[in-house]
Design brief:
Order of helices and strands: HHHHHHHHHHH
Radius of gyration: 28 Å
Strand content: under 5%
Largest sheet: none
Number of strands: 0
Shape: elongated
Helix content: over 70%
Structural class: mainly alpha
Number of domains: 2
Distance between the termini: 71 Å
Amino acid sequence: MLSRFSWPGSGKRRFADLSEQEILALAIASEEEDGRIYAIYASRLRKDYPSSAAVFDGMAAEEDTHRLRLIEAYRRRFGDVIVPIRREHVSDFYSRRPVWLVENLGLDRIREEASSMEREAHDFYVAAAGHTTDADTRKLLGDLAVAESKHEAAADRLTAEHLGGEQRQEEDAASRRQFILTWVQPGLAGLMDGSVSTLAPIFATAFATQDPWTTFLVGLSASVGAGISMGFTEAAHDDGRLSGRGAPWKRGLASGVMTALGGLGHALPYLIPHFWTATAIALVVVFIELWAIVWIQNRYMETPFLRATFQVVLGGGLVLAAGILIGAS
C-alpha cells in the first residue's frame, strides 16, 4: 500500500473517498512534481557530476511521458479542466520530504531519495488501479504501476548509458573527497586537538588536587572553551569558495563538536567521586580516543597505520605523561 501516510487533518479528503476523476488529477499532479524534483536534482548535479545529471534528466523525461498519458486519459473522460488536487489535499497520501531544498545535498542521498520516490509512485498506482472501475483507466494505472516498478531498471539503463564505470568512479571519488574535506578533516583536527591538548591540564589538575569534582570542572571548561575556539577558527579562516572545502558553518560545527567531545571524553569520568576509579576509567577513555584517531586517519586520510599509530599514540602519551608529572610534582 501507500507509504508515509500522514495523519488525517481538517479539510482534507481521504484517499478512499476520491473519485476516479480526482485520482487521475492527483496522478497528474504527482507526476508533474516528481518530474520537477528530478529536474532540480539534475541542475544541482550538473556542475560537479554531469554524468549523474544526465541520468536525472532522463528520469525527468520519463515522468513527463507518464504525465502526458494521464492527461490524455483525463481529457478523454472528463474534459480539459483538470481538478486542482495535490498530495497535500489527501490526508492518507504519501508526502515528499523537501530534501531538494537542502543546499549541497550529497550525491548518494539524491540517489537514495530517487529510489524511494520510485517505490512510492509504484505503490500509489497499485492502490489507484484497485480503486477504479473504468477498464481503460484501470489499465493505464496498472501499466504505470508496472512502469514505476521498472524505473529502477530504467535508472540502471540510464546510468549505464550516461554513467559508465569510469565516470561513476570519478563522481564517487569526488563525492567522497568533498565529504572528507567538509566533515572528516575538520572533525579529525578537532578530535585530535580536544583529546591531546586537554590531557595535560586535566591530569595535572587530577594529580595535583586528587579532587574529582575540581578535575571535572577544569576538564569541562577546557573542553568547551577549546571547542568554541576551534569551531570559530575553522569557520572564519576559510569560506570554502577557493579551497572547495565546503560551507564554513559545516566545517566549524564538525571541528567544534569533535574538539569538545575529545576533551569531555576523559573529563566525564571525574564525575565519579572516587579519585582512583575515575582516573583509571579516564585513562581507558584516553586509550580509546587515541586509537579512534588512528583509525580515522588510516580509514579516511589514508595515513599508513604504523605511522598514524606512532604519531598519535606517542604524542598523546608524551602529553599525558607531562600532565601527570607536573601534577604530581
